[in-house]
Amino acid sequence: MKSIVVACSNCGTKNRIPADKQHLGPKCGKCKAPLSLSAAAVPVELDDSTFSGFTSRASKPVLVDFFSPTCGPCRLLAPTIDTMARKFYGRVIIAKLDTSRNHITAAQYRIKGVPTLLFFKNGKLVDQVTGALPEQELTRLLEEFAE
Ligand SMILES: [Zn+2]
């Protein structure tokens, strides 16, 4: 699991936060001040073993980018997904799943083409879109989806 390093705005201590814990109100390990992650947030990388637990227990709506590393449109969309993780930090959890390595989850959601974006609220699939959306369009969808 990827992690991010965030400097505490209060004491300057660098804190390492696992990507899947970004959304749990992380605090500075030294002074306990809340850490602001909005400039550093990254998509949470999910796999077959973590997918259903993460999406069902998430405190915020979750967008999952189902992608394959060899797919051109997926690579085109990836920087937009990274941007959304920062832009919607605290409102929507941005995640991704590599369908070339996680066949069980991809089959469960009948993913036929990638990239496919799945929108979950309270662990339930509420919407899905296939194809690499322009940043503006994805922002609009997430504004509607955010709480
Ligand atoms: Zn601190």
Q: How would you portray this structure in words?
A:
- By secondary structure, the protein is α/β, with parallel strands linked by helices.
- The protein folds into 2 domains: 1-37, Zn-finger domain of Sec23/24 (SH3 type barrels, Roll); 44-145, 3-Layer(aba) Sandwich (Glutaredoxin).
- The protein is built from 4 helices and 7 strands, in the order E-E-E-H-E-H-E-H-E-E-H.
- It has a 5-stranded mixed sheet, sandwiched between helices.
- The longest helix is centred in the middle third of the chain and has 16 residues, at 72-87.
- The chain is globular and about 50 Å long.
- Zinc ion binds at residues 8, 10-11, 13, 28, 30-31, 33.
Defining key terms:
147 residues; alpha/beta; SH3 type barrels; Glutaredoxin; 2 domains; five-stranded mixed sheet; two-stranded antiparallel sheet; 4 helices; globular; binds zinc ion
